[in-house]
Amino acid sequence: MKRFLLTRSAKKDIDEIWLYIGQKSESVTPAERLIARLHRTMVSLAANPSIGRRCEEIDERGRCFPAGDYIVYYREESSRIAITHVFHSKRDQKKAWRETQSR
């Protein structure tokens, strides 16, 4: 089974999601639950990388897969998958991707 690696950008996305949910709910519990759900999705993607759809319009080499209200972007590599980004599904995905390229 393949493993997954979080890129620096994906780590930043997840940290921002955790902080936003934690502040919005005034508790870390919902944020922790969401991060656990994202983690389970990433483990599933590592085990079955082809379940995500190609997303050439966002990342020509990447795939994406929904995880609740979020979309996980990743690239399949020889021995692992690299999680490149995690964005809320209501965001303009192309714009979010472009914005992160300038970070």
- What overall form do the CA principal axes indicate? globular
Major sheet characteristics: 5 strands, mixed
Structure annotation, total helices:
3
Q: Report the CATH superfamily.
A: RelE-like
The CATH class = Alpha Beta
Report how far apart the termini are.
Answer: 32 Å
- Secondary-structure content class: alpha+beta
Would you identify the regions where 5 or more consecutive residues have pLDDT less than 50? none
Instruction: Kindly provide the radius of gyration, computed on alpha-carbon positions and rounded to a whole number of angstroms.
Output: 13 Å
Describe this structure in words.
- It is a single chain.
- Helix content is 45%, strand content 26%.
- The protein contains 3 helices and 5 strands, in the order E-H-H-E-E-E-E-H.
- 23% of the residues are buried.
- It is globular.
- It starts with a strand and ends with a helix.
- The protein has a single domain (3-101), classed as RelE-like (YaeB-like fold), CATH 3.30.2310.20.
- The longest helix is centred in the middle third of the chain and has 19 residues, at 29-47.
- The mean pLDDT is 92.
- The chain has 103 residues and is an alpha+beta fold.
